[in-house]
Write a structure and sequence with these properties.
- It is a single chain.
- Strand 10 and strand 11 form a beta hairpin.
- The radius of gyration is 19 Å and the shape is globular.
- Strands 1, 2, 3, 6, 7, 8, 9, 10, 11 and 12 form a 10-stranded antiparallel β-sheet that branches. A two-stranded antiparallel sheet has the order 4-5.
- It has a domain of 111 residues.
- It is mainly beta and 170 residues long.
Length: 170
């Protein structure tokens, strides 16, 4: 019998600053691909053709207003804000733990200060759109996506290297 890995704790860093005791939750980016359906002559049914990655977002919430985040609002560069999620996942049948880290660069698309009521902590929600994504598992890079650099590395294989070479992008 095996049990799944469960998140035991997490931390979020914004430009290197740890949100210890401030971050409430993080919704990690969904990895999605854009597919177009194609049915050519001689095919009985269509297949979906991979047309590249889709836009990604990281959503997160803190227990109250965050001044440093407000000061990042409206940054010009598409990758001006760096966030780092660190999570510790543990398997309770073996006790083994895994460190999973996701680093993203992007900019804040939404900052929602929510309803404010006396005696209520209030939520501070942020949606950060992503231009760069890197997932490491126990220090090993599993996925790296650099939309601006045309890089897609999965399991150590650069899946866009041939395309960059064909286009003269090095």
């Amino acid at each position: 019998m095996a049990l799944p890995r469960k998140l035991k704790n997490l931390m979020l860093f914004n430009a290197g600053r740890a949100y210890i005791g401030e971050v409430a939750s993080v919704t990690l980016p969904k990895l999605t691909r854009k597919f177009d359906e194609w049915r050519g002559g001689g095919m009985d049914s269509p297949v979906k053709i991979d047309m590249g990655g889709e836009a990604m977002d990281l959503e997160w919430m803190c227990g109250g207003p965050m001044r440093d985040v407000l000061r990042q609002y409206g940054t010009i560069g598409v990758a001006d804000v760096q966030l780092r999620f660190a999570g510790y996942y543990q398997n309770d049948d073996t006790g083994d733990g895994d460190a999973i880290e996701i680093i993203v660069r992007g900019r804040h698309e939404e900052i929602d200060m929510g309803e404010q009521k006396p005696g209520d902590g209030g939520d501070f929600k942020v949606k950060t759109t992503i231009a760069y994504y890197k997932l490491t598992w126990n220090g090993v890079t599993e996925i790296e996506i650099d939309a601006l650099g045309m890089v897609l590395i999965v399991g150590g294989v650069d899946r866009l290297a041939q395309q960059r070479a064909a286009l003269g992008i090095f």
